[in-house]
């Protein structure tokens, strides 16, 4: 082997080492490490989300419910009032009692977790602006549904507000003060895989520039 | 240089080449191919979303606005009524007129796109259930904000409903029929990078099992 060939081999070595280093620097910080289990991107999750009403018996953990509620609290609120409170439920008896009395949330009897999203009237804006809590808590609820889909869980938004009887039922069973208004009850569990996302894209609902 | 040293250098070369190949195989299949531009996962995007009020002059394309509105229409609605309509605006004159008259949406004069999320009262449930459109359209709005963050855009939810004067302004400028109620106006553009996400996680807003 000539001296020239050895020099070329050495340069090739250096070139390869630098390439390797650059690749590690670029891709080594694996983004999925940051958020355990969440390997899918946002637009996909938005379109994959479906209302899940059929669940396997697999247990939902407290940490998972907390992940969903942290996502909820990342929603925007009018004048940053954060006029909300969240009840995370894993207690079998409470889930059963809610499922027994709520006509559109019977699946609570077969799921092992739920989240109730509430407005807190002590934290809202005043007068006519009070009702912004409904929009704020709805945005937070959507975050819960998307976060659930993202970590492999399924969920469904069952309404309480403004149905007086359902609000009364939830308030009684959860011991809510008068200032705390339940917007919905969201059963959360591992999906059986029955439900598929609906394609609700309708071009006629999109108007350009004006009506 | 001895023969041994040359052999070591050659082995090193082979080792480096194989490592490089493995790295390329592992990370080369970029998951962003599935959804153009969307490189981040859902929980990250939920927490990274911020209200963006400062934009660069870079043009937002019609296709991008359509991506956001497709995401909006993937939100759940009560009894699947989809009681909504979306106005996508790029017209300079319309954006300026809205920005001139809406006190909390002055940034419309400096952005080159916006989306108005509306309730369609012809498509709602009846009686007291009519107002579910507010929750449905709020969930859709949250999808718009998250989808914007996901594709590198910035947006901010500026309220119209239930502010009578702002609703009137939007309806007049966009020529909305009486049955179409503007919930908000969402300016959309490339963020200047001024705004950072707020950490709104407050453990005291999370209750376990009951109040």
Keyword list:
211 residues, alpha+beta, 41% helix, homodimer, elongated, 5-stranded antiparallel β-sheet
- CATH 4th-level superfamily of the largest domain in chain A: NADH Oxidase
Largest interface chains and counts: A-B, 93 and 94 residues
Share of β-strand residues of chain A: 5-15%
Find the CATH topology of the largest domain in chain A.
Answer: NADH Oxidase
CATH class of the largest domain in chain A: Alpha Beta
Question: Could you give the order of the helices and strands of chain A?
Answer: HHHHEHEHEEHEE
- What is the share of helical residues of chain A? 40-55%
Q: Kindly report how far apart the N and C termini of chain A lie.
A: 79 Å
- Supply the helix-strand structural class of chain A: alpha+beta
Number of extended strands of chain A: 6
CATH architecture grouping of the largest domain in chain A: 3-Layer(aba) Sandwich
Average of pLDDT of chain A: 91
Tally of alpha and pi helices of chain A:
7
- Which of globular, elongated, flat, extended, rod-shaped describes the shape of chain A? elongated
Sketch the major β-sheet of chain A.
Answer: 5 strands, antiparallel
CA radius of gyration of chain A is 24 Å
- The oligomeric state of the chains shown is homodimer
Tally of structural domains of chain A: 2
Q: List unreliable stretches of 5+ residues of chain A.
A: 29-36
């Amino acid at each position: 082997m000539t001296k020239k060939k050895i020099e070329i081999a050495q340069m090739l070595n250096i070139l390869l080492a630098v390439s390797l280093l650059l690749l590690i620097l670029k891709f080594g910080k694996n983004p999925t490490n940051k958020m355990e289990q969440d390997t899918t991107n946002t637009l996909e999750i938005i379109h994959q989300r479906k209302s899940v009403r059929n669940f396997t018996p697999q247990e939902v953990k407290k940490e998972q419910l907390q992940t969903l509620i942290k996502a909820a609290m990342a929603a925007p609120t009018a004048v940053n009032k954060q006029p909300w409170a969240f009840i995370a439920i894993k207690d079998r008896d409470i889930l059963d009692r809610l499922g027994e009395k709520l006509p559109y949330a019977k699946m609570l009897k077969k799921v092992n977790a739920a989240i109730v999203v509430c407005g807190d009237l002590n934290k809202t804006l005043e007068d006519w602006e009070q009702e912004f809590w409904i929009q704020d808590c709805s945005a937070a609820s959507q975050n819960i549904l998307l976060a659930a889909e993202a970590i492999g869980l399924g969920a469904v938004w069952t309404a309480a507000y403004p149905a007086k009887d359902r609000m009364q039922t939830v308030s009684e069973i959860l011991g809510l003060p008068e200032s705390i208004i339940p917007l919905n009850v969201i059963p959360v569990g591992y999906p059986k895989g029955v439900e598929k996302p609906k394609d609700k894209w309708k071009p006629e609902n999109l108007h350009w520039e004006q009506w």
